[in-house]
Design goal:
One of its GO terms (molecular function) is zinc ion binding. This is SWIM zinc finger domain protein. Keywords: Metal-binding, Zinc, Zinc-finger. InterPro entries: Znf_SWIM. The protein has about 110 residues and is of the alpha+beta class. It has one domain. The protein contains 4 helices and 4 strands, in the order H-E-E-E-E-H-H-H. It has helices spanning about 25-30, 65-70, 80-90, 100-105, and strands at about 35-40, 45-50, 55-60, 65. A 4-stranded antiparallel beta sheet has the order 1-2-3-4.
């Protein structure tokens, strides 16, 4: 399992869009300190929050073990699903197939 320190996402919002204009869950996904780790190939990740909570996110099935997902199933996902998606796009965590971001770039 590849682990990361709790961190907020660096400035990733495109120019011209203020973070205050983002959907609240997306804003929290970008700003709150979280650590994302790949649990197993197939797209299962662990997300640890600054409060000490942790949730299991399945990026392929688009599901999370958090209360927001369990009780509201928000369109676009909970903040944990959104955070895993951002971390994947930034290449900060292994892909669902287990390959590290650098490995994925160098293979045809």
């Amino acid at each position: 399992m590849v682990s990361q320190q709790l961190s907020a996402v660096p400035e990733t919002v495109p120019r011209g869009i203020a973070r205050t204009d983002l959907e609240p869950r997306t804003k929290r996904a970008l700003e709150e300190a979280m650590a994302v780790s790949l649990l197993e190939k197939g797209g299962r990740y662990e997300v640890r929050t600054a409060s000490g909570s942790w949730y299991e996110v399945d990026i392929v099935a688009e599901a999370c073990t958090c209360p927001d997902w369990k009780y509201r199933t928000p369109e676009g996902g909970c903040k944990h699903l959104r955070r895993v998606d951002v971390e994947l796009k930034l290449g900060r965590v292994p892909r669902p197939d287990g390959r590290l971001p650098d490995q994925a770039r160098h293979e045809p």
